[in-house]
Design goal:
Blueprint: H1 2-6, H2 8-34, E1 48-51, E2 67-72, E3 75-83, H3 91-103, E4 105-114, E5 134-139, E6 142-147, E7 164-166, E8 172-174, H4 193-208, E9 212-219, E10 228-231, H5 236-248, E11 254-257, H6 266-273, E12 277-284, H7 297-302, H8 306-313, H9 328-354, E13 358-360, H10 365-368
Parallel strand pairs: 3-4, 3-9, 9-12, 10-11
Antiparallel strand pairs: 1-2, 2-4, 4-13, 5-6, 7-8, 10-12
Bound molecules: zinc ion.
The site of zinc ion has 4 residues, from loops.
């Protein structure tokens, strides 16, 4: 005790140095993750790219800007934009979009694919979740690292959150939802970064007159809107056709109308503020729910969790769930089968009027589940 009293200044200096070291290590971790460059290896189907900031110059040079991959067919036809990575803690949407960019081929029409829709949300994790920064997949070029990010934009890019977030429709939500891009559509040109991104997407769809749009999501297994397609009213009949085909392909999918009074979401606002046919798909992601154990890379990839097994036995889950978990491959397979069925439904219903969309090279649901193929075979 005497030692500490006598050496008060020395102890203060030691404690200050120790805290600086901890802050330095944590700070470097935050900095490295924020600046991490995720590798995307476009396949031969990609004919050109542009930056989303072409549709809102306010995004230029910011963490909100993101690459749009364009895949043009030899034959002209309809157009389709696919949004992956709206919520970077929902990896099947992100990975389905990556797979399209790396393996898809367009025979007719044009695809616009955005694998990192809210790029800012890929630059951090949700606090207090203990989430890993990355997950790994064995691909054609070896083991690759993919980012597991946050549901919301990085607060460094827009701070502080208001107490209440008031959307342009007058809808009010808790303040942190202002960083959830799927509550900010149709967006605001010079608003917060998240509103600037959603504005750019709305403006891109209007300017390029894109016929069809799909936003790829996941939700917790205990959330009722799951293994579902949500469709804007103008897209309902096309979605019904697609769902029948999905059932035939072994993919159970419910169809839900976009609620008219729920604002800020792609399936509502892109349908209302553009001419596009707006759809959103959800798969069940155990790493995202509230009931699981440790958030690990294994949980992200396999979806296996003992607590979810108990919840399933007690009847609390909205997806089929057993000891096989809910593997990322199966969830990406659902999204890719959905993308392909809705493209066929679009061509059947609107091909004569707007032009066909024909895509090849993508795995089916069966390929990625019982078919013995791995997701990594479709990543370069
Ligand atoms: Zn989501």
């Amino acid at each position: 005790m005497d030692f500490f009293k006598k050496n008060k200044h020395l102890m203060t200096a030691v404690c200050a140095a120790a805290s600086l070291a901890v802050a330095g290590i944590a700070g470097k971790d935050f900095y490295d993750f924020r600046h991490y460059q995720e590798v995307i290896i476009p396949g031969p189907g990609v004919t050109r790219t542009f930056m989303l900031s072409d549709y809102n110059e306010n995004l230029k040079g910011t963490f909100g800007d993101t690459t749009v991959y364009v895949m043009e067919g030899e034959r002209e036809g309809g157009s389709f934009v696919i949004l992956g990575g709206t919520h970077p803690n929902e990896p099947s949407g992100h990975m389905a979009a990556m797979t399209i960019v790396e393996s898809g081929k367009v025979e007719a029409g044009t695809l616009y694919v955005i694998p990192r829709t809210d790029n800012s949300a890929f630059t951090h994790n949700d606090p207090q979740e203990g989430s890993p920064h990355f997950f790994h997949i064995d691909t054609k070029s070896g083991t690759r690292e993919f980012v597991f990010g946050s549901r919301a934009s990085n607060p460094i890019d827009q701070w502080p959150d208001p107490d209440v977030y008031t959307h342009s429709s007058g809808q009010t939500l808790s303040g942190s939802e202002m960083r959830n891009i799927n509550r900010t559509y149709p967006g605001v040109k010079d608003g917060t970064m998240t509103e600037q991104i959603s504005y750019a997407i709305t403006n891109m769809i209007n300017t390029l007159d894109i016929d069809m749009e799909m936003d790829l999501h996941e939700a917790s297994p205990e959330y009722p809107t799951i293994n579902a397609t949500v469709a804007h009213e103008r897209a309902m009949s096309m979605a019904s056709m697609g769902i029948l085909e999905l059932q035939m392909a072994g993919v159970d999918m419910s169809l839900e109308p976009s609620p008219v009074s729920l604002h800020g979401l792609t399936h509502r606002e892109l349908g209302d503020h553009t001419n596009t046919l707006a759809l959103l798909m959800e798969t069940g992601n155990p790493s995202q729910g509230r009931l699981h154990g440790k958030t690990s890379e294994d949980l992200i990839l396999t979806g296996k969790d003992d607590y979810y097994m108990k919840a399933a036995a007690a009847g609390y889950l909205y997806i089929p769930y057993d000891e096989n978990g809910a593997p990322l491959e199966m969830r990406v397979g659902r999204h890719l089968q959905g993308v392909q069925e809705y493209i066929r439904a679009f061509t059947d219903m609107y091909g004569a009027e707007k032009g066909e969309i024909v895509v090849s090279g993508l795995p089916s649901y069966e390929d990625l589940t019982s078919g013995g193929h791995r997701l990594g075979e479709y990543l370069n």
